[in-house]
Amino acid sequence: MDLIIRRATLPRSAAQLFPHHPSPVDVGIDDAGRIVAVEPNLAASARDEIDAAGSLVTPPFVDPHFHMDATLSYGLPRVNASGTLLEGIALWGELKPELTQQALIERAMQYCDWAVARGLLAIRSHVDVCDPRLLAVEALLEVKRRVAPYLDLQLVAFPQDGLLRSAGAFDNLKRAIGMGVDVVGGIPHFERTLADGAQSVRMLCEYAAGQGLRVDMHCDESDDPLSRHIETLAAETHRLGMHGRVTGSHLTSMHSMDNYYVSKLLPLMRESGVAAIANPLINITLQGRSDTYPKRRGMTRVPEMLAAGITVAFGHDCVMDPWYSLGSADMLEVAQMGLHVAQMTSVDGMRACFDAVTVNAARILGLEDYGIAPGCAANLVVLDARDEIEAIRLRAARLAVVSRGRVVSRAPAARASLSLEGRPEQVDFKLHRA
Ligand code: FE2
Q: 3-state class of 346 per DSSP?
C-alpha cells in the first residue's frame, strides 16, 4: 500500500456497496493511484497513513456545469451593477474582445487551485465557441492538459449567442470538437423563435449522435412556461438512441410550467434517460427577476424529477464572473442552496443534495472509475463532518484531498477558541450531547 486512510465513514451512496461492513472502514490505496481495499481494520502498512477518526470520507465533489472561460473576471472591464442576467450578457460582450489567451489560462488555473482545495476534482465546463478565433477553446484545452494529472476537466462546445442566431456558430462548434472539446452544447431558448430553438436541438443531437458524443444543452433557462425545448431534447434523445448520454442544464422554465404538462414531460425524460442539472445559486439569483410579488424561485423541479427516477445534479455555473459576483468553488455551498430552494429538508432530501454534487454529477460526466470501492481511482476527500448532512450544514473543511492516490491539499478544521468564564475553551460547531 502507498496510502491508507483509517477509520473513514463513507457517504450513504458508497456505504451501500459494503452493507456487511459497519462504518468506519479503512481505505487502502496502491502506488498506481487505485483503491485496492475497503474494509475495517485493514491489516497492512503503507508509506503514509491518514487517520480520519470517524470523519466522512467521500469521493470528490464533481461540478457538472461551469463556465471556466468567464470565471474570476469579476470587475473586468467593470462590475455588473444591477446583478441581472441581461447586464451580465452585455458585460460578457464587452469583455470578449479584450480576452487574451494568457489571461484566460491564468484565471482558469487559479480557479482549479481553489477547486482542488475544496475537494472538487472533476468539472464539466462550457466554453463559448461563438468567437471565430476560438481563443477560449484553445485556452481551456491548454488548461485541461495542465490540470490532467490531478483534475478531470471536461469541455462542452457552447454556442452562447445561439447556434442559428450567430453566424458561423455551427462551424465553430464542429471545429472546437475537432480540436478536442468533449461534449456538444446548445442554447435553444436563445434562438430567435421557438421553431429555431427546436431546429437547433435536432441539428445538435444528430451531429452528436453521428460523432458518438455526449450532449449537454443550456435548455429553457427562462421563466417562460412555454419554453419547452426539454421536450424536444428528450424526444430527439429517444429517437437517436442516445439514452443516458444527454443532459438538460438549468431547465428553469419547468418551475413555471403547467402541472399537467409536466406530468407528461417527466416520464418522457425518464424514458429517454435524459439527466438534469440545476444551478441553484444562479437560478435563485437570476430567475423571477421580472416578477413583483409573489416572486418565483425559478429553479427546476428537483424533488419531482428525482422521484420520477431522473438523474439530477447541481452545478456551480458561475464564480466571480459577469453573471455572479460570489462563489469559491465550494460544491457544499451549491448543495446547501439547492437544499433550501427546493425545500429538500427531509433526511433523504438532504442526503440527495449531497449526491447531487458527487455521485449523480459523476454519472452525468460519465466518470468511469468514480467511487470508494476496490478498482476505483483513489480520488477522495476527508471532510470535517460526521455525515453528509453535517457536511452541508457546516460547509465542512476539506481536511485532506487525495487525487490519483496523492495528497494534494490539506486544510485545518474550523475551530474557535473561547475566552468565557465557565464555558468550554473551544467550539467546533458540532452537536455534542452528554
Ligand atoms: Fe450555464
A: coil
Which residues are bridge partners to 3 per DSSP? 29, 48
- Say if CB 341 and CB 280 are below 8 A apart: yes
HSE, side-chain direction, 13 A CA sphere, residue 366: 14
Task: Compute the distance from residue 126 Cα to the ligand 1 centre, in Å.
Answer: 7
The answer to whether 400 and 409 have CB atoms below 8 angstroms apart is: yes
DSSP secondary structure letter of residue 72: T
Strand pairing report for 406-410 and 398-403: antiparallel
Cα 300 to ligand 1 centroid, rounded to whole Å: 14
Sequence letter at residue 244: G
pTM check: above 0.85: yes
Looking at residue 294, its pLDDT comes to: 96
CA of 67 to the centre of ligand 1 (A): 6
DSSP state at residue 363: H
Active centre residues (catalytic): 221
Q: Which residue has the cell 430553438?
A: 197
Cell of 295: 416572486
| Residue 314 bridge partners (DSSP) | 278
Cα distances from 312 to residues 159, 348, 352, 355, in angstroms, run 23, 14, 9, 9
**Segments of the chain with pLDDT less than 50:** none
> In a 10 Å sphere around its CB, with 0-12 CB exposed, 13-18 middle and 19+ buried, how is residue 295 labelled?
exposed
**Cell 475544496 sits on residue:** 118
Distance CA 361, CA 316 (A): 11
Domains and CATH numbers, the chain: 3-59+371-417 (2.30.40.10), 61-365 (3.20.20.140)
